[in-house]
Structure formats: C-alpha cells, structure tokens
C-alpha cells in the first residue's frame, strides 16, 4: 500500500475576477521509503501541491476537490488540530530559505527540543540529548556546543542541515522538501542532497522533493513527476523520464539542459512561456507550444496515459493517435 | 558590548551640541535680555554695567562656552517672567510631570500591548473590530479634546473626579508626590488617561501590525509545519518576535508622552514642566525655554540610549554584529 | 479613465462602505469649509451683525434654543455653525499648506539624499535623525516660540498664519525625506536610471523626470495620514494659544475659547467645534488607512 496517495486533487483560488485553478486533477502516489521528485517551471504548481499535502495552503486558496490519503486515511478534510498532530510527526517539511525558516531569536537547541517534546514522550533532558544526536547526524561539528547557537551564527549550508534535523527529529514517515537546495551555494548543494538522501534511506522516510533543478532530481529521486500549468504531464522512473521523456514538454525540458559531453552553439529552449492561471488554453494546456500538436490537442484535455515505461498526459499515446513520438 | 555603549554615547553628543547651540542662539539673538530686564528707563551706564555683568560683551564663542559650562551645572539664569532661578522652577515642577508621564506610559503599555496582541491574533472577532474602531477614533482625537471630554463627563456632569490641579501632595525627600494621598490619586486619573490614550492607540496599532507581519513569516510557517501547538506558536514564537521592535517604539513613546504632557497639563492646569514651558513660550521667556529644551533633549537622548541597550540585550543578532 | 474604474484600487474603494462614507464626509467638510463665505448662515466676523442679546443661546433643539442659530451662540452672540465653518476653513488651510510644505521639502531632500549620496546624504539624514528624536509637536512649538520672541507683537500677528504653517511643515518633513530616500536608493540602482545616465541626461533631470514618479507611491499614503496629523497639530497649537492669530480662529481656537465656559454649563461652545474636528480628522484617517492598504502590494 502506498504511503501517500493523492487522488484528483483540485486547488482553487477565488479572486474577484473569478476562480483560478492552481492544481487541476493532480494524482500520484508515493511508496514508503521512495523519493518522488516534482519538477516544473515556477508557477507550475509544485509548491502548491506540497502545501496542500501538509495542510498549509495560504488562504484564500483551498482544496476544492479530490482526496489526499496518508496510509489509507484521508487527511485533506481534517480539522486544524487533528492535522496539527500529523504535521511534524508523520509528515515533515523543509522549505527553501534556511535563513528565514528559523526563528532568529531562539537558539537552535531550543527549537529542536521544542519540536521533539511536542511529538515524542521524552522529558527535557532526554529531548536535549536527542537534539544533540540529531545535530551530529546532520553533520554539525561540535554539536554539544553548537546547540546553544543562534541561527545567524551558522553558515547557509549548516543552517539548512539544522532545518533538516528539525524536519526529521519527530521521525516522520514522509518529508515534503520544497526547493531545499535552491538557496545554497552550488558546492554545498551536493552535500546537502547527499545528506538528505542518506538520512531518508536510514530512517526509511519517503520524500517528495520539489525543485526546478533537474540535477538534484537525477541525483536523489527514484521517480519523477513533471508538472505544467497545475497538472502532472508525465510521471515515471527517473532514468526513463530523463533519457526517454515521452511528453513533448518533458522532452523539451530534458533537451534544454546543456550537455556536458559536447559543445553546442545554441542553447535549446522551448518557445513561448507557461500560460497564466487565468488563461489556460482549451484542451491540452501545452498545445500552444507543442511541436507535435494535432487536432485532438485543442479540444480534449488528456489524462495520464501509459506510454512505455512512464505515463504521459499526451494524446500521442492514446490508442488511435496519428503519429508516435 | 562596551564598544556599543561608547559608540552610542558618542552619537548622542552631536545631538546635545546642536540642541545647546540652538538654545544658546535663542539666548544670544532673540530679543534683548538687557532691555527686558532693565525695563524702559535706564541710563547708558546702567546698561553697560549689566552687559558686562552678563558677559554679553565677550566674543560669541566664549559666551557659548560659558553657557555650556553653566548649563552642565544646571545654571540657566533667571526667568524673565518670574525672576526666579530657572533651575529652581524646573526642579519644583519636574516631579509632577514625571509622575504623570510614568502613569500615562504605564496605562498605554499595560492596555495597548495586550489589545494589540489580541487584535493581531484573532483578526475577525467582534471584539477585535471593536478595538480597532476604538483605536481609529483614538488616533483622530487630539489630546486636549480627550481631556475636555473627560472633564465634561467626569468632573462637570458626574462630579466624580477633580478637573484641575494635583490634589494633596506629600513631600518625600525632595520629591513632592501625589501618589500617597487619595485626592492626589483622584486628581491623577483623568490627566493620566488623557495623556496615555493617544499613545495607547498608537501602541495597539503598532503591535497589531507587527503581529500580522510576524504571523506571515517563514519561520512561523515552519513552526506550523512542525506541528507545534497554537500556544507555542502564538505566545512562544510570534509574541517574542513582535515585542522586539515594539520595545523601540515604546521607548520613544515615553519621550512623546513627556512632550504631550504640555497639552495635558494645560487642560488640567497640572503644575508641571509642560505648563511652565507653554507659559514661557507665550511670554517669550527665553531662559526657561532654553532650559526646558536642553532638559528634554537630554531625556530623549537617554531614553534612546536605554532603548538601544534593550534592543541589544534582546536581539541576539546584534550581539555578533552580523545580519 | 476607463482603466481607473476598472482597477483594483477603485474596486477596493467601492467595496468598503466605510471608506466611501468617509470620502463623502471629507468632501462635504472641505466643500463646506471652502465655500463658508457663501454657505454660512451668518458672518461671525461682522461685528455689526452681532447681537449681544443673543449670546449664550443653546442649540436649537434645546429649550431656549433659537432656529436662527442651529448650533447655539457663544459669549458674543456669534453663531456656532458659522463660526465652525469658518474655523474649519482655517484648520484645513493650515493643515493642507503645512502638509504640502512638508511634502515638497521632504521629497526634495529625500530625493537629493538618496540620489546624490555621500556627504549630502550623510548631512541631510543626520539632520533628519536629530529632528526625529523629538516629537513633531515640540519642534513646531519651538519654531513658533522663537519667531514669537524674535518679532514684535504686531508683526507677529500678521505673519502668525505663515509661522504656524512653517512650523508644522518643518516638523513633519523628515518622515517624507526618509521614505523617499529609501525608495530613491532602490531606484537609483535600477536599469532605467543607468540607461538615462548612459544617454547623458543631467542628474537633476534624471531625478525629477525618471526617479521621482516611481517613488511617489508611499508619499501619497504618508501625505494623507500626515494631513490628519497636521490638522491635529494646528488644533493643538491654537488650543495652547500659540497657533493661528485670534483674528482668524481655527477649530482649535474655538475649542479654547469654549473651554472657559465648560463649567458654567454652556458646553456647546466647545463641544461642537470639537465634534467637527473629530469628524474631519477621522474621515481623513480612514481614507489614509484605506489608501495604505490598497496600495500595499503585499496585501493584494
């Protein structure tokens, strides 16, 4: 049974100009211990999906349809205090900027101990010891002393490690990591990703890794979902999506990554830009930019269709399509 | 830490110098103290004698230095209007103003901060809306009008509280306090409320605005994502982060209260420094104006310094000099 | 024009009846004040038209009231309603002028400080900081006091109005200056300024034509809220007796005069001008609040 299952999730934003649909019929699942990468351009809905899962959608956004199940139990319709118990203990979260994620006025130790004692039945002394353990585990040297340091006394990479410790210290089964390395130096990124991956493996924690950086995905994810305009357009094992992307958008994404092994004169890019939420085209949202467009694309919206080793939301893979990609 | 204090003190020096210069300039160039003191009929000889005794024939810079030297010792000469030493006048009136100001500040903080926190956390309750409406009216009312309305209600119509004066005062050492007598306390209520009301509404709005800002930060979001209880988030994290900037403003409010005491003392005929100042402005009594100015500047500078130190003590980011 | 009515600002304006109401009230106040000579039922300054017999009449709905004087009369037989209208005129005049003065002075200083930087910036901001240590009412009092002492009485009465405007204006400029300086610093590093410099436009031209329009947004909000403060400041100064001259009474002056009669029971002489003042300032504050929320990009 999957750990997390998202079925037909729909997130809406009522505005004075009408209702904007930020997530439209999003479905996927994450198995225990699995790392699912979620990629896409800014505004595609990746962060919104994460926020919906942990129940922290910014109002007036709200879940307007679909279900989110954790271990078979619905969590999208829970009351605030019920969801609060799940947050931290069963689902952990990591956000992008470690400087603003940590309260500057409290020591790192206090924030850790607070989280630990909220969820686990440990007394303060035990919690303190556990906090030091966690700092060591995420690779902070001299943890026993650093526990009394303030967030601004750490470097960027160290800070994110503290954030990781905070997210994992209540031992959740699932982590939602939203752009965990984007704010860090490139040289630190690899270390942090390796740390995250290692810890997840050790604890058996599943992870939803949201990012726009394909390199991170290739490094850390087992499966990957590509999002576009609030929908998932392709989902499948990482190697398959990267090497043999089926959906024209994913193919375009992968092709735009400059190759390491040969020179190119021109960087490949996809023409046009992602539509605004208020102006999503009829039929398949990608059709204005798609090089393989045909009649059906402007009429009907495709769901995810099995396409070889992955699933792609593209009419090319429906039975009876004119050409194969 | 020590360096911090020293640097702040050094920054305060130019302020004091500028203020003393303005005060002195008032003395030197505004009006003619000699004719004011001598009146209409005087002989040239008398005039010259007075000029010499006042040191007005010395060069500008020397006069300024003398002025500064005297000022530091609290010597400001005689009031033009009352012909008494200025220092004595101010010394007599200072306790009245200080008691009033401290009471008003206490009221403003003790009521304003909780109201601000409440309206920040529970934005849509009817109590919040009531507080906000109340604060909006409070900000639109000038202090003197509040005083008049209060006098009208409580002194004229209801007759519960006195409308002027300090009531009975007891002498505690050199300090004449009204806090130890019933009539003194009764006389303190209306002026303190009047003085504190404006500041109360300002503090409330400030705390609320700060609270709303804080509740939208990433670290609060992260605290929620970690499943911390509402109590821990609201009163542990949010409150502490809100109060840090509030400290500065609250400290400055004390300064504003001392300044607005001028108005309140006028309305209630409260025998404090503010009333003295206004009477001096009306009578062009330069020595008192100058002395009051310098005293107020000193008070403000000291308040600013204390607030800076408090900030330093509360916000760990300042201690390492980063961020 | 179309775009304005279609915009978010207009929408949020019409959504709140409080804001619309206060705008209407403010408009009525301003119109009534400006047109006082035409609209007021009596002329309180025409000594010939005053009837001392009519002095101390309570408002028209009270027992001894008279319909000729809707809000009662004061100790000299002046009609309160007319006095209030003329008084509001003076209050608004001083308030607007002082705010305008503060805005122009503050924006120019802020622009210069932010754009030219260096010594100019340091000097101007030092002055602003020193001034900001003190509450503005104190600064205004000081300026008024100095002028009053420096100038003989008759001359002072003539220029008193300007002195008050100057005093309040000077006491408020630092707020504008600081905000505009901050925005200017941000704008100065933007590409359009760089482009203008590359073309060879002079510094002042760049400041005024290019940077200024972009930093004016918050100025509008501060200006509106400052208008309320300026009106209150003038009222306070006049109440204390150091504001506008007695020949041109503002609402603050009226309140002061009326205060003397509070204990003998003629409450209306001080209360009605007070209510008028509150209404004016309240509506300006409400408009300023709405403006601030409407123009705040973070809250949209």
What can you tell me about this protein's structure?
The complex is a heterotrimer of chains A (325), B (323) and C (300). Chain A is an alpha/beta fold and 325 residues long. In chain A, 32% of the residues lie in helices and 23% in strands. In chain A, helix 4 crosses helix 5 and helix 5 packs across helix 7. The two termini of chain A are 33 Å apart. The model of chain A has no long low-confidence stretch (mean pLDDT 86). Chain B has 323 residues and is mostly helical. In chain B, strands 1-2 form a two-stranded antiparallel ribbon. In chain B, helix 1 runs antiparallel to helix 12. Chain B is globular. The mean pLDDT of chain B is 80. The radius of gyration of chain C is 23 Å and the shape is elongated. Chain C is built from twelve helices and no strands. Chain C starts with a helix and ends in a 5-residue tail after the last helix. The mean pLDDT of chain C is 80. In chain C, helix 5 packs antiparallel against helix 6, helix 5 packs parallel to helix 12 and helix 6 packs across helix 8. Helices cover 74% and strands 0% of the residues of chain C. With 300 residues, chain C is an all-alpha fold. Classes of the chains: A alpha/beta (325), B mainly alpha (323), C mainly alpha (300). At the B-C interface, helix 1, helix 6, helix 7, helix 10 and helix 11 of B face helix 7, helix 10, helix 11 and helix 12 of C.
Helix and strand arrangement:
The complex is a heterotrimer of chains A (325), B (323) and C (300).
Chain A: E1 4-15, E2 18-30, E3 35-39, H1 46-54, E4 62-70, E5 73-74, H2 80-86, E6 91-94, H3 98-101, H4 108-119, H5 124-137, H6 143-146, H7 156-168, E7 174-178, H8 186-203, E8 206-210, H9 214-220, E9 223-228, E10 231-237, H10 238-243, H11 248-256, E11 305-307, E12 310-312
Parallel strand pairs in A: 3-8, 3-9, 6-7, 7-8
Antiparallel strand pairs in A: 1-2, 1-4, 4-5, 9-10, 10-12, 11-12
Chain B: H1 2-29, H2 33-38, H3 44-54, H4 60-72, H5 86-121, H6 126-140, H7 143-157, E1 170-172, E2 175-177, H8 182-215, H9 218-225, H10 230-268, H11 273-283, H12 286-314, H13 316-319
Antiparallel strand pairs in B: 1-2
Helix pairs in contact in B: 1-12, 5-6, 5-8, 5-10, 6-8, 7-8, 7-10, 8-10, 10-11, 10-12, 11-12
Chain C: H1 2-6, H2 8-15, H3 17-34, H4 36-39, H5 80-116, H6 118-132, H7 136-150, H8 153-188, H9 191-199, H10 203-240, H11 251-259, H12 268-295
Helix pairs in contact in C: 2-12, 3-5, 3-12, 5-6, 5-8, 5-10, 5-11, 5-12, 6-8, 7-8, 8-10, 9-10, 10-11, 10-12, 11-12
